[in-house]
UniProtKB/TrEMBL annotation:
SUPFAM superfamilies: HAD-like. It catalyses: an (S)-2-haloacid + H2O = a (2R)-2-hydroxycarboxylate + a halide anion + H(+). Catalyzes the hydrolytic dehalogenation of small (S)-2-haloalkanoic acids to yield the corresponding (R)-2-hydroxyalkanoic acids. The keyword Calcium does not apply. Pfam families: Hydrolase. It comes from the Bacteria. Belongs to the HAD-like hydrolase superfamily. S-2-haloalkanoic acid dehalogenase family. Keywords: Hydrolase. Its EC number is 3.8.1.2. This is (S)-2-haloacid dehalogenase. Coiled coil: none annotated.
Length: 235
């Protein structure tokens, strides 16, 4: 392994929604509790579908930076109108994004990785959202990095680079971990190392995307325990 390979990795930063936590079933659980009259999984899926278009307007410069908490709330209003429902306390349901269940391998895998490396989220979620989610899900981060530091959204290069800069590490000593190939493609373009961990049911049993790596990523792992094993094996 060369000096620029995984032997030099000092920190791993993680996509969170989908890679670390099961947003679909977790949000649907909260929807079912508040809006029992709707198809909770369909509502959760529709809410998530507003996520990227809302961020795109900010990435494209059509709107200044708005934290994801506020975008989620705006998107919730859009989805409620589409489903023909009214919420008396939308903030209560919006907090669903702070109560997402981790995939079974995540907490243990992160604990293994943290023994030797710095670990942190590099998410589009705000610092407040990521902090509360970490407390709920038991995610043992060393710190919170990501979009709010850059005041922009992935896959903009600034989000990855600012996260590395906050750790005072060059990008080639930081590994981005994600279940989404497009996230890794952008991270690699920003100079980071990359690790792919598939989440084959993030979008449900009929998922058709990100079932396998589409790039020559530095590590491809079956789960976070395997990721920790492979990272340890390189130094």
């Amino acid at each position: 392994m060369t000096a620029t390979g995984p032997t030099m990795i000092q920190a791993l930063i993680f996509d969170v929604f989908g890679t670390c936590v099961d947003w679909r079933n977790s949000v649907a659980r909260e929807v079912a509790a508040v809006l029992p009259q709707v198809d909770a999984l369909a509502f959760a899926t529709a809410w998530r579908a507003e996520y990227d278009p809302a961020m795109a307007r900010i990435r494209d410069g059509a709107r200044g930076y708005v934290p994801l908490d506020d975008l989620h709330l705006e998107n919730l209003d859009t989805v409620c109108r589409a489903f023909g429902v009214t919420l008396e306390a939308p903030d209560r349901l919006n907090a669903a994004w702070e109560k997402l269940e981790p995939w079974p391998d995540v907490v243990g895998g992160l604990q293994l990785l943290r023994q030797e490396r710095i670990i942190a989220p590099c998410s589009n979620g705000s610092i407040a959202l990521m902090t509360r989610l970490a407390r709920y899900a038991g995610l043992p981060w060393d710190c919170i990095l990501g979009a709010e530091l850059a005041r922009d959204y992935k896959p903009q290069a600034a989000v990855y680079r600012v996260s590395c800069a906050a750790l005072r590490l060059p990008p080639d000593q930081v590994m981005m971990v994600a279940a989404h190939n497009d996230d890794l493609l952008a991270a690699r373009a920003a100079g980071l190392r990359t690790a792919f961990v598939p989440r084959l049911t993030e979008h449900g049993p009929d998922q058709a995307t990100d079932l396998e790596p589409t790039g020559d990523w530095d590590i491809v792992a079956k789960d976070f325990a395997d990721l920790a094993h492979q990272v340890a094996g390189h130094g």
